[in-house]
Amino acid sequence: QLQLVESGGGLVQPGGSLRLSCAASGFALDVYTIGWFRLAPGKEREGVSCIFRSDGRTRYADSVKGRFTISRDIAKSTVYLQMNSLKPEDTAVYYCAAGGGSLLFRLCHSQYEYDYWGQGTQVTVSS
To answer: Where are the beta strands (DSSP E) in 1-127?
Structure first.
């Protein structure tokens, strides 16, 4: 059974850092593309970053480019989202999702391309 479990969220001051983890089970990370998404109150779910299954290419939303880094450890079946220089507007529930072989790299920012989702982890940036 394919499963995703996020961890690493919490409360951090503006300018601080957090590292989110997405532990995958039931599939290999070089077969499924992993995306990070976030949902803030009153807003639509936003694609934050993604890492493509076959070659590890990455994409970032403009709002996080230069501050967030996505990476993966295939042996540990875990994808990470390192978040630096956090801002209050980064406050949201962060979800990881997995998409299979039909997902194209140019569409990996779209939530509609993903089949499996984790339960989410809360990130709050506040002083």
So the answer is: 3-7, 10-12, 18-25, 33-39, 46-51, 58-60, 68-73, 78-83, 92-99, 116-117, 121-125
Query: For the segment 96-121, what is each residue's pLDDT rounded down to a tens digit?
Result: 999 987 888 889 999 999 999 999 99
Tokens of 117: 């989702």
Give the Cα separation of 111 and 46 in Å (integer).
8
The contacts found for 59-68 with CB under 8 angstroms, 24 or more apart, are 59/105, 59/108, 59/109, 61/109, 63/89, 64/90
Give me the mean pLDDT over the 27-54 stretch: 95
CB 36 within 8 A of CB 90: no
R_g of the chain, CA atoms, integer Å: 13
Shortest CA distance to 94 belongs to which of 124, 54, 51, 58? Answer: 124
Task: Name the nearest CA neighbour of 98 among 34, 51, 39.
Answer: 34
Q: What DSSP string runs through 47-59?
A: EEEEE-TTT--EE
